[in-house]
Amino acid sequence: MSFTDEELEGVRAAAAAEGKSLKQYLHDLGVREMQRQRFVTGATTWADRLRGEFDDAFPDEVPPSERDGAAAA
After folding, report:
1. Residues 22 and 11: beta-carbon distance below 8 Å
2. CB 25 within 8 A of CB 1
3. Which listed site, 21, 28, 31, 41, has its alpha carbon 20 to 30 Å from 64?
4. How sure is the predictor about 64, in pLDDT bands with cuts at 50, 70 and 90?
């Protein structure tokens, strides 16, 4: 990995703020990003499954461009 001097200074400061070594901080950062991506994928899947039920319960909340496949006015 390569960082500019300014970037490396920021990463070192962030690692120090968490009380971690630079190596541990960068490892944890990668793991957190993988977990974030899994969460976003799961949340999107969950929202997509419920979208129809929500649209039926709150028809006025459906964006006009998505109502009955009609084009936006």
Report:
1. yes
2. no
3. 41
4. low
